[in-house]
Fold these 4 entries.
Entry 1:
Amino acid sequence: MSSRIFTTAECAPNVCRAVMNELLTNNAKLYALRYQVEIGEALGSGKDGIVLVGKSNIFQADVAIKMHRFAELYHREKNAYERLRSLEVSKVSGFSVPELLRVDDELQVIEMTIVQRPFVLDFAAAYLDVRPEFPDEVWAEWEADKREQFEEHWPKVRAILDAFEAFGIYLTDISPANIGFEL
């Protein structure tokens, strides 16, 4: 792990993201050494972290390895996955959900199964047991934005959100990238 500290005020956003991605890639290499995982190509990256494909020698399967940029988001996602695992949930409203395989708190890494469409991914902004408190107008704007993003799929997305809420998981960061319908 790196002891380097910087703030966004000290570098341009693209430079900061590149430096953070380099640090996260180093965490992936350390994780690979610790847990006998061969790191492969990128599955994705975003504001929360990066996700790489891994070949697990222990699980004898391809896995997703997610390195988080921020501790709070790592813990939110870890807690959501632990909740889903404790409830033995692998599908929600017919959509596959990755299954938690292993975590490393020091490196802020989550190892999970890779799922195919239709799927629900990315719980870094999830809240457990209590819906986050925002003014009603913020929720109304959020829902209007999501209705627009998902168009005719919105009723199914709303059903998925309701199903997660029945598990005590409140999803706030949803998009067509992390609620993937059949193509």
Entry 2:
Amino acid sequence: MRDSGFPADLLFRLFSVLLTTAIIAVLLVTLSRMPPFASPDNPTVNEVYSRYIEKGVSETGAVNTVAAVVLDYRAFDTLGESVMLFAAVIAVIMLIRTGSPDGTQAENSGKTKQPLVLRLIVKLTTPFILIYGIYILLNGHLSPGGGFSGGAILGAGMALFAFAFGSASVRRFLSFKTFSVCTCAALLFYALVKGWAFFMGASGLSTGIPAGIPGNIFSGGLILPLNICVGIIVAFTVYALYALFSEGEV
């Protein structure tokens, strides 16, 4: 006996289409009412924006204005983003990690047999990928780059090596304990030094950390060490997510 009522799946599809259309319409109307790009009336063109451009180098010592904003003026925003990455990988570890606490299963898993040509190419290119990632990470206050982009390159390099040779090969120098200690230490260092710097600044006191000569590798105050912390978190998170989703183990 057939149902004489309206099919539930058709009703669901119709509702989905109507809801999506309504959301698109609201976004298009909002976009049409926004001020033109680079217009003097744009809310983003204000004294804060001018302060970043005019005094960013003298106040932070960073030639790269983006790095000065991300890791100095708005450093706590970046800390929140790093914490979210850390929380995401911890959630994935809790849900799908299959290795035993003593690492017994980890020693017997993570082995792969990829073609010889692929393994040879990966073995030759991985050192250059890692060196390039380190360069991008350390030069974030001098040129485009920094902790997020450099860390992503480093994490991708380790994931590529694990794909060719198995995660057991990466686990020789990046164990789960190393991953946990390094990411927690990087987050704690970031939070403590920037909390101290903001507290001293709000109190009208000097942090005692010189900004250095803009353009030199050792300049930018805390930006270089904070870039290193962010790079560690991003690199380990990228690799950990790959290892967990592919083999269930870090």
Entry 3:
Amino acid sequence: MDLLLTAAVTVGLVVASASHIASIALAMRRAAKNRKRPRGRAPTGVSIVRPVCGLEHRIGATLASSFQIGHPSYEVIFCVAAADDPVVPIVQRLIREHPEIPARLLVGGGGGGPNPKLANLMKAWDVAAHDWIVLADSNVLIPPDYLDRLFARWSERCAVVCSPPVGIDARGCAAELEAAFLNTFQARWQLAGDALGFGFAHGKTMLLRRSDLACEGGLAALAREIAEDAAATKMARRRGRLVRIVDEPFPQPLGRRSFTGVWQRQLRWARLRRLSFPGYFYAELPAGGVFPFLLAAALATAGVLPWAGVVAMMLAWYGAEALLASAFAWPLRVRTPLFWIARDLLLPVLWLHAWVGSGYEWRGNPVDLHPTT
């Protein structure tokens, strides 16, 4: 290996390693701040809107958590597309069991459009009682301080406060692989990006102010993109506003997953990111450990770096992820690093596959992807 190539490979390795460590350090700093920062006080009057569709793992617990929030004045609106959906009896029972919380179930197709979840939510937007609205997916396990943690990140410069999911209760290898994508990779990069001032909205939980969206056309403004979180991010940036991420993301119980389901879900999200933010998507190709380790192996083969150094680098790389998981008390087992390695091996394959195909299926609804403007 000549001197110029050696220098280029070394620089690439240093940049990749520094980016990895820096992103983890930024995310861990958020965990430390979260312990010290006083919770924001949520304003009186918040509407929590939850789309429901089908039966998911621990659906009774995730929906019941809607009624256990420590806040004096909030309502819960559940939205379902079809009256015969099997989740309907569960929602109706929970509403009966918690008469102290204003709650209702809205049934019907909603506003249409290419995004099935957003179409399901449309019917709740204008009937919600409050200006502050939280859109929360049905599989989010809401903690008692949910609203306080959201409003702790709000400022007048904000347009959206959101939370990526953190996978918990992973049962089986496929679910642990999904947690490897969600936790120390995707949630970590979103926390790091927010710390640097360029947060991206995530549709799992989004806090919005209805009056802010009124000049954009209301909730329908989020239908301008195939993904409502991408539309929210672009809307915020057009207006010179911020998207902020909660300091400690909210959990999603995973249960048992299939490898096919995990792959299809990650591929769907990758395609959406490619269409919505192509510039950022290009930067995802070298993410993960594959390229840095290939560069380190090239240096070791050339005799520039000892093979023991490659092993030490691998231990440090995934050891840093373990420190991150420990800092947030995210699920961490002895075999968890094996799923981080599997995830990193899949990332380049996922990136390449994201360029192929023009659609996906979301809970039985076919969705056609198309380039955004």
Entry 4:
Amino acid sequence: MNSISHLALKHAVWLCAMLGCLTARADVIFDRISAYNHIQVIDEGDTRRLSFNGSWETRMSLAFPLTGHFEYTEYFQMPWIWNTNIHRVLMAGLGGGSTQRAYQHYYTNVLVDTVEIDPVVVSVAQQYFHVTETPQLRIHTNDARMFLLRSTNTYDVIIMDAYSTTRYGSSLPAHLTTREFFTIANARLSTNGVLAYNVIGQIQGYRASVVGAIYRTMKQVFPQVYLFPASESENVVLIGTKSNEYFDLAKVQADAVSLMRSGRVTLRTFYVRTANFIAQPPPSANQSPILTDDYAPIESLLQGSQ
């Protein structure tokens, strides 16, 4: 290191310290390799994080467990706009339970079934992230597609946030991305049912081809598909509705106001999140494939989108 860069580094460290931006000490309080993941729980200051194979899955404030979560999880409450009579929700993927805690807090009369394939994740969520099974929150250790195939329940909302890890990092399990899977999910939805699906990626740029493929595949099954790209992370939550009715931004925001005024939705940022609503297909949709059980090249799409 030459003297100029050394002085610059010293100045940067001094400035960071003066501004209070030096990071707090990170303590690994749980570290285990399960059948599916290398799982770590890490405390840093007032924040607890859950890591799978080096990727952040959950973030939670230790002082206020209902806060500190990743922004994209709030888009899992957007289905209320299309179905104002939600009683039963299925969520695939538990992680640290940010969405489950939110539903337990904001919607006390809603039953949430959670499907998580990794029993160690279930144990960690319960021990370190305030996830508690109650009559309104039930956890099933199973594969999400197998659970839906065997289920006789009807859900008002199905939320997909299940990820695996490949050589390209966090990846969608291929069997949960196909037209056949969405057909199975659609059959388990109520008349005004809604499916919300988290994709790590962006509308344009990083992993845009994956976003386009999921959009195009969902559109094979659901009459309307919308997007909510997160502002603070590389996540896009896609919304598929059984209803044919088309919603534009004005209607989405008007219905959000109505839901908040009625007290049906009490999440303070609910209306703010509607600003990210997109009704048009992502630019990559025309070039992305329709995913099927016979052809779901998720890894190839990831390889071309890094």
